[in-house]
Amino acid sequence: MPTRRQFIGKAAVAGSAIVGMPSLSSFPDKKEFFVHHVYFWLKNPDSPDDKNKLIEGLKKLSKVKTIRTFHMGQPAQTNRDVIDRSYSISWLLFFDSKADQDSYQSDPVHLKFVEECSSLWTKVIVYDSIDI
Amino acid sequence: MPTRRQFIGKAAVAGSAIVGMPSLSSFPDKKEFFVHHVYFWLKNPDSPDDKNKLIEGLKKLSKVKTIRTFHMGQPAQTNRDVIDRSYSISWLLFFDSKADQDSYQSDPVHLKFVEECSSLWTKVIVYDSIDI
Questions:
Q1: Distance of alpha carbon B48 from alpha carbon B120, whole angstroms
Q2: Does A129 contact B12 at a Cβ distance shorter than 8 Å?
Q3: What is the pTM of this model?
């Protein structure tokens, strides 16, 4: 296997979009991932204020303890027919199990995020995926 | 940071949907991720043969050297209004940069995958995201 194939993850620091600390010891038993990918379409996509409010809300949301790793993103420069780049924010989470994802959905931090931020978006699409 | 927040990645073995070897040494300089998420809708979604052909094609595709980490998935059991679970296969890739993703698009392995497998699907949606 090429040595370039490596982890994803990085200690959460300002400017870093991925959290996660590598742990060799936790690898051998890792068999399952629950991938929860959310795309947000803002009501006011050209408002930097609204975008920042959502980003700040997601930063708080990232503290939910069952989240294994997250990535917060925005559309890349790529542009082909099959690419949907109309969303404002991508919110990608990895959980260890469906149970952890279910717990996240009902976590008070998540409920507060929805309460505080749901007025910002007009559309959300979620794709939940499990290992094949 | 909670100790549960860790990397994603695992040496590619049968049954493992994520590739990647953790490398502590490569962390400190990691500042950028290019997330390429593809959803495939099969022409014959109820055909196990077609699904398996696509899975086998993606396994070969995963050998492209610029891929840092990948996850191959299928819809989870979750089911809410905002969830799209109509796709057949989720193909999630992490690259170190847009340049690496561009290289992947034109890699002979990728071109061969498209040639061999594109007849299997009727629709593809791609979301490319970069760090905020």
A1: 12
A2: no
A3: 0.82
User: Is the minimum CB–CB distance between A3 and chain B shorter than 8 Å?
Assistant: yes
Mutate one of A1, A6, A64 to test the B interface: name it (highest B CB count within 10 A): A6
Measured from the Cβ of residue B52, the count of other Cβ atoms closer than 10 Å reads 11
Q: Which residues are CB-neighbours of A17 under 8 A, at least 6 positions away?
A: A71, A72, A73, B33, B131, B132
Cα separation, B105 vs B103, whole angstroms:
5
**In this structure, which amino acid lies at residue A128?**
D
Burial of B111 (0-12, 13-18, 19+ CB in 10 A): exposed
Predicted interface score ipTM higher than 0.85? no
Q: In the structure encoding, which two tokens stand for residue B9, read together?
A: 């990645």
Pairing assessment for the beta strands A121-131 and B34-42 based on DSSP bridges: unpaired
Tokens of A40: 């947000």
User: What is the β-pairing status of strands B89-95 and A69-75?
Assistant: unpaired
Q: What is the pLDDT of residues A86-118, one digit of tens each?
A: 999 999 999 999 999 999 999 999 999 999 999
Reported as a pLDDT band with limits 50, 70 and 90, residue A30 is low
> For residue A70, which of A28, A113, A29 has the smallest C-alpha distance?
A113
Q: What is the pLDDT of residues A40-73, one digit of tens each?
A: 999 999 999 999 999 999 999 999 999 988 899 9
Q: Does A2 touch chain B (CB under 8 A)?
A: yes
Rounded to whole angstroms, how far apart are CA atoms B83 and B106? 32
Q: From the CB of residue B67, how many other CB atoms can be counted at a distance below 10 Å?
A: 25
